[in-house]
Amino acid sequence: MSYEGVSKKSVSCACGKGRVVLTVSENDWNQVRESVSIECEYCRNVYRIESKYCCPKPMHDYTIYYLVEIDNPGNKRQLDL
Ligand SMILES: [Zn+2]
What we know:
Blueprint: E1 4-12, E2 19-26, E3 32-39, H1 41-46, E4 47-54, E5 62-69, E6 72-79
Antiparallel strand pairs: 1-2, 2-3, 4-5, 5-6
Protein backbone atom coordinates (compact mmCIF):
# COMPACT_ATOMS: atom_id res chain seq x y z
CA MET A 1 0.00 0.00 0.00
CA SER A 2 1.23 3.43 -0.73
CA TYR A 3 0.62 6.89 0.46
CA GLU A 4 0.22 9.70 -1.98
CA GLY A 5 1.04 13.26 -1.16
CA VAL A 6 -2.18 15.14 -1.52
CA SER A 7 -1.43 18.50 -0.03
CA LYS A 8 1.42 20.58 1.21
CA LYS A 9 1.43 23.57 3.42
CA SER A 10 4.40 25.59 4.53
CA VAL A 11 5.38 28.44 6.79
CA SER A 12 8.64 30.33 7.23
CA CYS A 13 11.23 28.63 9.39
CA ALA A 14 12.65 30.28 12.49
CA CYS A 15 15.49 32.13 10.75
CA GLY A 16 13.31 33.11 7.81
CA LYS A 17 15.60 31.70 5.11
CA GLY A 18 13.79 28.42 4.57
CA ARG A 19 10.46 26.75 5.09
CA VAL A 20 8.84 24.28 7.42
CA VAL A 21 6.68 22.01 5.29
CA LEU A 22 3.69 19.92 6.28
CA THR A 23 2.85 17.13 3.87
CA VAL A 24 -0.50 15.42 4.16
CA SER A 25 -0.71 12.01 2.49
CA GLU A 26 -3.64 9.71 2.02
CA ASN A 27 -3.70 6.01 1.14
CA ASP A 28 -6.30 3.87 -0.63
CA TRP A 29 -8.29 3.48 2.57
CA ASN A 30 -8.49 7.21 3.20
CA GLN A 31 -6.09 6.96 6.08
CA VAL A 32 -4.33 10.25 6.47
CA ARG A 33 -0.75 10.68 7.49
CA GLU A 34 0.94 13.96 8.22
CA SER A 35 4.62 14.66 8.30
CA VAL A 36 6.52 17.83 8.97
CA SER A 37 10.01 18.56 7.74
CA ILE A 38 12.34 21.49 8.22
CA GLU A 39 13.59 22.54 4.83
CA CYS A 40 16.32 24.84 6.03
CA GLU A 41 19.96 23.93 6.50
CA TYR A 42 20.39 26.12 9.56
CA CYS A 43 17.14 25.37 11.36
CA ARG A 44 17.46 21.63 10.82
CA ASN A 45 20.54 21.69 13.05
CA VAL A 46 19.09 23.96 15.67
CA TYR A 47 15.46 22.92 15.95
CA ARG A 48 13.38 19.80 16.02
CA ILE A 49 9.69 19.29 15.40
CA GLU A 50 7.40 18.40 18.24
CA SER A 51 3.78 17.52 17.72
CA LYS A 52 0.80 17.40 20.00
CA TYR A 53 -2.28 15.48 19.00
CA CYS A 54 -5.56 17.00 20.10
CA CYS A 55 -8.88 15.26 20.01
CA PRO A 56 -11.50 17.58 21.49
CA LYS A 57 -14.58 15.45 20.92
CA PRO A 58 -17.04 16.02 19.32
CA MET A 59 -14.90 18.40 17.32
CA HIS A 60 -12.52 17.26 14.63
CA ASP A 61 -9.14 16.08 15.84
CA TYR A 62 -6.05 18.02 14.88
CA THR A 63 -2.36 18.18 15.53
CA ILE A 64 -0.39 21.17 16.71
CA TYR A 65 3.24 21.39 15.61
CA TYR A 66 6.00 23.17 17.45
CA LEU A 67 9.52 24.13 16.54
CA VAL A 68 11.69 23.40 19.59
CA GLU A 69 15.28 24.55 20.01
CA ILE A 70 17.37 21.44 20.64
CA ASP A 71 19.80 23.08 23.10
CA ASN A 72 17.13 25.12 24.77
CA PRO A 73 13.79 23.27 24.83
CA GLY A 74 12.16 26.19 26.62
CA ASN A 75 12.34 28.04 23.33
CA LYS A 76 9.31 26.63 21.63
CA ARG A 77 7.18 28.23 18.99
CA GLN A 78 3.93 27.03 17.59
CA LEU A 79 3.81 26.59 13.85
CA ASP A 80 0.84 27.89 11.96
CA LEU A 81 0.41 24.75 9.88
ZN1 LIG B 1 15.77 28.57 8.86
